[in-house]
Write a structure and sequence with these properties.
This protein is an all-alpha fold. 44% of the residues lie in helices and 0% in strands. Among the domains are: 8-70, no CATH class; 99-175, no CATH class. It has helices spanning 8-18, 23-30, 34-42, 62-70, 105-115, 121-128, 132-139, 154-157, 162-175, 189-192, 213-227. The relative contact order is 0.07.
Length: 228
Amino acid sequence: MSIQPLMPKATAVWLVENTALSFDQIADFCKLHTLEIKAIADGDAAQGIKGLDPILTGQLTREEIEQAEADPKHTLKLADAKVRLPEAKRKKGPRYTPVSRRQDRPNAILWLVRSHPELKDSQIMRLVGTTKSTIQAIRDRSHWNAASLSPLDPVTLGLCSQIDLDLEVHRAAKEKPAEPDHGVTLLPAEVTTAKPVDEEPEHVKKPNEELDVQAVFAKLKQIGGKGE
């Protein structure tokens, strides 16, 4: 990504007035169009703009300018910054929501409450930039426009990114306590000691039980003797 110098038009004015650089070189360095640089040189543009010396601001060195003046094909390069400013940290707090999107927040909250009930109110507040009272009103259907709300994905609405949503869902899943494992439980004693329903008394013979052959012959012989 190309980096634009500080106050590019004012820098271009100074380079046009104080150097022999070509229009193309100045345009490339200041990230402006060549015709705009020509208009500055002709006095048709940037009237009233005071030139900004890029050497004093530390954006160019005199040696870099002299080298570019000697070689029209040389591309000017920004000098390395002598002081490194730390990146601005993002302030904690509700996400800013554009005015044009604020009317969609209740629909997004309803979607989050239904689709991801594991999310805390504080997480929903970070995602769509709302208040705890609004979330509670949507949860218990006491919101003034509850009858007209419809769940809509906040990512589709442009209220948050998919990365932010996935991060909050993953965080909520990690913080959710695991359900207790009761393990395998033993059956009650009355169940384990109870007789099966189809169990029969011992004196009742089953159909497939083998007959006593000797007893049968003795019975037949007794019947035959009585007949004599």
